[in-house]
Design a protein that fits this description.
- The chain is of the alpha+beta class and 248 residues long.
- Helices cover 13% and strands 25% of the residues.
- A hairpin with a 5-residue loop joins strand 9 and strand 10.
- The protein is elongated and about 55 Å long.
- The N terminus is likely disordered.
Amino acid sequence: MKSKFHTPSIQPTAFIASLAACCLAVVAVSATAMDKPAADKPSTSANKTVDIRTWKLDPAAGWSVRTLIGKNVRGPSGEEVGEVENIVFGPEGKVVKLILSTGGILGIGDKNLAVKWSDVKIGPGYDYVTTPITAESVEKFGLFDGVPEKSGAVGPRQWRASELIGDYAQLKEGIRYAYVRDLIVSQEGQLQAVIVSPDVGYARGMRGYYAYPFYGYGYGWNPGNPQYNLPYGKADIADLVPYTYNKR
């Protein structure tokens, strides 16, 4: 008896061609997915380890974060609106905001405000900064304006200079080494270097301050880390010359 279900015959050549086409499509999709950059992942190309024995930091090429902390903050007409309290960096080490304390000057009590770095102008000699803040516009400069609310896994985030200044620095193999004294930022607002003061227990001969390239996410330091990890060993830094640092 013939079955009531008819099974169509499959030609071997056609089947193989169809299977090959499907495999090529899967490979193409996989390659496309691999080409796409990971979302919210900071680039690390600029943070590759450099030879500290030949690397030099030009003191005139940037400014010190500690130089600005505590300096006067002015409004667009030159009126005093507060003082600099902190500097905020993005995951790539770029300055994104300035945080100031009003000290009750604007009639709103002692509040902290945040100003986009693109709206900040540094005065001559780094003696003050000018911002667009006025008594009438103060509500536009909240601390959390433009900051996304946390959702899901915590990824690279903005961080404050005070999270790194005052941290401990270690060499390779967990060798306790120094104290992070300051951060040096380029005129374009890119974090270039950390200034450290070696611990007296590490080497009595290492007096003064030393500059090292900044290594951030994926390299030497992430916000919340217990210390700043330098990718160098004792032999690498044995003959370093102290950095000409203006202690402020």
